[in-house]
């Protein structure tokens, strides 16, 4: 996501990125053909092509394509439709080869040792270096499709407020957005299995991911000292050619890109359709605005305090409970209460205003569960067969094709 004007002010614009899997229409097996898709559209290999409001680009692996707003947009109005139009165009191009896009944050039966093929074209030296150090043949590298939200800041004061608000909201996000209940053909132990793999994929060098929730820092200088310099130092013995010593090496769940004065939130699982993705983005943005309006009364929370809430959301989903009374008080709950994360989101939703389309999508989540929970409900089995998983994920692919919400079946 490139910010072409610098600096944008706080909430002046937003950039959205969505990652989709390419799969066989019949079997849903992953199809390593993103480069072929780009050639069909562009006539030649490129790592990014503009298609009006939305651009297409490659990712680490060949069965994933990223769609993103070409430039930062002032409003999310109409963005769901723009993403959907590009989904329709891509599906039309892919249909010639019996391939289609599939949503959700993890492929339900991908074999990482057999099915993952790395992008071999432009900038592949970066991917090769990651593979050399961490071995990218794993779910934490090649099976984790997400939405990224990019939000700008104009100066250190705006950075501090935005960064703190994001840190505080981050622990709640997995309970809202989890869409990765199944991998390797089985229901996983957590509601958001993608984020569990995300946390482990660079454990060889723990400083890179930290506690996922970033440390509290007041300005660019402190961020560089406490976060960036520590990651560069930790990877230096493994990255002797300095290929990875850039801001994007930091793999916390929200990373600051001072090269474009923006913070990128990365812990949001991809949903069933753009309507749902944009609804979650809208709720997160409006929640951050609400928190920043109350910034003077927000207490300090260390990443160590926030991390257990984040893990509860990741593991238990919307029904997970929060016990941290200081954190709950921030959202209007009295001490000595144990509150579900679902109810915290309901409390936040009562304080913000969303578009009617987004509010309906959020109410679907808060009423029926996050996408992981809805998928498991509809499968109605602790050990669903591959045939039933394929059937269910074809329904999800149909939701993507029609930009339609996925709901429980009675």
TrEMBL record:
GO terms for biological process: modified amino acid biosynthetic process. Gene3D superfamilies: 3.30.590.20. GO terms for molecular function: glutamate-cysteine ligase activity. The keyword Ligase applies. Coiled coil: none annotated. InterPro entries: GCL_type2/YbdK_subfam, GCS2, Gln_synth/guanido_kin_cat_dom. The keyword Ligase applies. It comes from the Bacteria. Keywords: Ligase. SUPFAM superfamilies: Glutamine synthetase/guanido kinase. This is Glutamate--cysteine ligase. It comes from Marivirga atlantica.
